[in-house]
Amino acid sequence: MEPYAKTQGVDMKDFDIGIIGSGPGGYRAAVLAALRGQKVAIIERATWGGTCLNRGCVPKKDWHESAKWIEQSQHFEQRGIVGSPLRGDLGRAWKHQHEVVNTVRQSYLDYLKRLGVRMLEGSAQFIGRHELQIDTAEGQTQIHCDKIIIATGSRPALPPGIETVAHRILHSDELFDTDVPEGKRVIIVGGGIIGTEFAYIFTMLGRQVTWLVHSEPLSHTRYSEQAKDALRDALAALKIEAQSGFVLKKVGIRGDLAWVEGADGQRHEADWVLLATGRHPQTQGLGLEHTAVRRDERGFIVTDAGLETDEPGVYAIGDVVGPLMNANQALADATLVVDRILGKSEARREPLWVPELVYSALELARIGMDEEQAEDADLEPAVGFAAFETSPRALGQDDAAGFVRLLADMDSGAFLGGEIVGRDAGELIHLLAQGSDRDTVLRQWISARYNHPARAEEVLNATETLAARWGLGDFLYGES
Ligand SMILES: Cc1cc2nc3c(=O)[nH]c(=O)nc-3n(C[C@H](O)[C@H](O)[C@H](O)COP(=O)(O)OP(=O)(O)OC[C@H]3O[C@@H](n4cnc5c(N)ncnc54)[C@H](O)[C@@H]3O)c2cc1C
Ligand SMILES: NC(=O)c1ccc[n+]([C@@H]2O[C@H](COP(=O)([O-])OP(=O)(O)OC[C@H]3O[C@@H](n4cnc5c(N)ncnc54)[C@H](O)[C@@H]3O)[C@@H](O)[C@H]2O)c1
Questions:
Q1: What is the three-class DSSP state of 403?
Q2: Best exposed site among 13, 308, 421, 474 by fewest CB in 10 Å?
Q3: Residue nearest to atom 48 of ligand 1 (CA)
Q4: How is the cofactor bound (predicted)?
């Protein structure tokens, strides 16, 4: 790819804002700051667009779409769509995501260029509190920035002593950086979000998956038991089951086969292996010792609620701050930090109100508190519920698994949190994310106009059950 700006000749230029990393956090911060008249430099040492665009959300959702179509094709004949049977081809799916990713990346770069953002290719490190040195292919250059945003993201974490082997034993970054391995049999290690998403995607795209997990998939997440059960059922219907109790200790290659060994000595063999055992914040080589920026014991950068580090004028956003690592958080962080830098807001980071998603045999989406958190906050949560199994739209789509589940405060009728499980949950969650006034938003949902038949109507139905079953009618149908 042609870089738009070489670092040569930039020597010690001044910028209003310097941003390290071009993932969703860094890219969004650059766009927002440039749109508001700031002189912005963004520095990227690897592929423009970061994890989300090149090795995460974007290619994963491209594959998830193909996986869904293959699964849906099981209903084609009964819907009157007939012809030869369809089958998944992960190799071709890899090429498809690659083309999509390249198109998106080019549009990102064009936009940054149009906005006048200075794009510098190389590895950035602090050499002073507000000075960065950038090591490029052509040499070193230095810039001064009034404000600096660290958006350096994360990298795959492997258990102690475990190393990847090219084309055979991979983590997810390597999976997207190189073509997918040929072999049909694949082992996935990890019951986190990546394991849960890829066990489904690979199976639908024609691979035989052995899925090895330590504890129940998604057990470390805040999805309700009902959501996890629904997902387990949907996976089981496709014969995708996690084998629990596996703690990875060793990996290796024997002839044509890759193997993994657990703490109990059990070995599993396959053509190749995907390791999905978490991610670490990425701060190595950043020169943080030249600043007052601190990291916690897990390596995450420590910030205040406005995402400013201990070094005044230096901020950190996205995965490198954690603890949740998703693009939605990185994007929300970028908005918050640019607003604060421009003095437009005193807002505080609110991870609770950033949507979380899982794309597997069902889409799981959630936002806000769960019951436990509500009770810990001395609130009394009422549950509003509507299942897609009676939705005319979902039935017409042959895809009626899942539900909308809302929590409201019994005393005030305030919206506390919600979960949407099933097809298009990743789109529908925006309904739950938009209400700016959570005290009155349920009243808005109950009086809003809906398209019929549509899945979004289940948000209305779930809200109505709060009125009907929990006596919240006075709050929800009251004067607005
Ligand atoms: C397989 C997978 C699927 C995912 N799917 C989803 C999803 O569906 N939805 C979702 O919300 N999230 C998803 N995520 C998570 C999401 O990708 C991350 O949360 C998001 O990319 C974090 O954004 P970021 O801006 O903090 O950092 P990143 O996207 O990691 O970008 C950081 C960038 O900084 C650069 N960098 C680091 N150090 C330096 C340096 N010293 N100098 C210059 N550049 C540097 C890196 O090269 C990188 O390009 C997924 C992740 C994975 C791995
Ligand atoms: N849709 C999304 O938002 C999305 C999608 C994919 C990834 N991500 C983010 O990317 C990050 C990485 O995802 P992930 O699934 O790798 O991490 P994760 O933290 O979600 O899960 C890691 C899993 O690895 C397991 N594990 C760790 N060491 C192990 C060992 N030695 N043996 C067996 N199992 C072991 C853990 O038990 C856990 O189930 C996460 O923070 C996730 O939130 C987000």
A1: strand
A2: 474
A3: 50
A4: Binds 1 FAD per subunit.
